[in-house]
């Protein structure tokens, strides 16, 4: 918990230190230092690339197994609303990113490899599986093992999830500020840091505005459908929003979320079913962030974010991120494979995406958790006791 609480400050410190080191190293022509930093950056990037298929297998497969052991109308309604909300956020983010592309990028260009800095040596770590192979395998195995959580094979994937969770928490997250700092060393040494940071600032404005807009929209819809006062309900969800903002984890916020929804008078059995499930599959905030940020980086490399590329990306992203909310930055971790396979992002671009996501993950997670409260209102009306008794 202490690590997660301090993560945002570690990230900011890494970014500031990286910018300072990059500017100083470029000014004093400290080529050896820049090459050493670049080498460390690429080695960690290779390690991340190696882990991506294992993260997909370790998170998506158990997530599908867990969903499959549930049954009934309430499951269908909850999954439909949660995925519908996530997809709506993705399509709205794509529309906003398309309209505001010029405002976000401002003509800034981000070097595809961090500039002309070369590493001292390279080391390739081939992943155990191609990303799409791991994704398809996760769906097939998850569906085959649905409802068989106690089988030996299912327990194997539950163990893999625990292993990957440990690797992310004990290796990736502690090293992440250094890795992100190294990316900003490369950017600042290239002399493009000011326009790029300006673009990133405008990017965050768009992302956070969209997240707040969707919170308001979903509570308005839920209030109309359930015939409740959405402002009062939303006000009672404030502790959950603040807790999620601090922990950057939907799973860690779960006890607070449950209590907030109970205070709003939702049926207990609906709460106990919907809120834990939504903490696994409802990633509205992450979807908005990843969609807009990937479009911005895509555009800054000179590409055009065509619907034929991004619509399939949004659909696959909505299901690939299943079970990711348990760890800070989980949405971005599981999205790295799709960014490489579908958008052709290289290691440097994936690193930038990871740094952009982690720096705003508090807002994204808080959006996920808060809108879970709107989902549970809708499920109670459409699939729970309220629908049966009215």
What gap, in angstroms, lies between the N and C termini?
43 Å
Tell me the count of domains: 1
Pattern of helices and strands: HHHHHHHHHHHHHHHH
Determine the fraction of residues in helical runs and give it as a percent range. Answer: over 70%
In what range is the share of β-strand residues? under 5%
Query: What is the strand tally?
Result: 0
What is the gyration radius calculated from CA atoms?
Answer: 21 Å
Average pLDDT, rounded to a whole number, is 84
- Biggest beta-sheet profile: none
Unreliable runs: 1-5
Kindly describe this structure:
The structure is a single chain. The chain is mainly α. Helices cover 80% and strands 0% of the residues. Helix 3 packs parallel to helix 12, helix 3 runs antiparallel to helix 13 (307-320) and helix 13 packs antiparallel against helix 14.
Describe the structure using short key phrases:
390 residues, mainly alpha, Proton glutamate symport protein, globular
């Amino acid at each position: 918990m202490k690590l997660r609480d301090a993560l945002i400050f570690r990230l900011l410190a890494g970014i500031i230190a990286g910018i300072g080191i990059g500017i100083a190293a470029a000014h004093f022509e400290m080529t050896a230092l820049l090459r050493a930093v670049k080498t460390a950056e690429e080695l960690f990037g290779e390690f991340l690339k190696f882990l991506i298929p294992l993260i997909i297998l370790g998170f998506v497969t158990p997530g599908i197994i867990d969903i499959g052991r549930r049954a009934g109308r309430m499951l269908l309604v909850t999954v439909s609303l949660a995925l519908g909300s996530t997809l709506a956020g993705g399509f709205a983010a794509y529309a906003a990113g398309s309209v505001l592309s010029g405002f976000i990028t401002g003509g800034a260009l981000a070097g595809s490899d961090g500039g002309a800095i070369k590493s001292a040596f390279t080391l390739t770590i081939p992943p155990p599986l191609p990303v799409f192979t791991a994704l398809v395998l996760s769906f097939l195995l998850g569906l085959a093992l649905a409802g068989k959580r106690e089988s030996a094979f299912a327990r194997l994937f539950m163990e893999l999830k625990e292993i990957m969770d440990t690797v992310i928490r004990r290796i990736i997250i502690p090293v992440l500020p250094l890795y992100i700092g190294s990316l900003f060393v490369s950017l600042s040494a290239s002399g493009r840091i000011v326009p790029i940071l300006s673009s990133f600032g405008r990017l965050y404005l768009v992302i956070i505005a969209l997240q707040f807009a969707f919170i308001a929209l979903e509570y308005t819809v839920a209030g109309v459908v359930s015939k409740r006062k959405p402002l009062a309900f939303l006000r009672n969800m404030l502790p959950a929003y603040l807790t999620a903002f601090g922990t950057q984890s939907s799973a860690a916020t779960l006890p607070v979320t449950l209590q907030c929804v109970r205070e709003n008078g939702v049926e207990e059995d609906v709460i106990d079913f919907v809120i834990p499930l939504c903490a696994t599959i409802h990633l509205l905030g992450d979807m908005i962030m990843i969609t807009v940020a990937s479009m911005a980086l895509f555009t800054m490399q000179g590409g055009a974010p065509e619907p034929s590329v991004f619509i399939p990306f949004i659909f696959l992203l909505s299901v690939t991120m299943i079970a990711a909310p348990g760890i800070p930055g989980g949405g971005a971790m599981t999205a790295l494979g799709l960014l490489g396979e579908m958008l052709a992002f290289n290691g440097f671009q994936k690193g930038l995406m990871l740094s952009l996501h982690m720096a705003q993950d508090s807002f994204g997670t808080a959006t996920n958790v808060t809108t879970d409260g709107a989902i549970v209102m809708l499920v109670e009306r459409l699939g729970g006791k309220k629908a049966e008794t009215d």
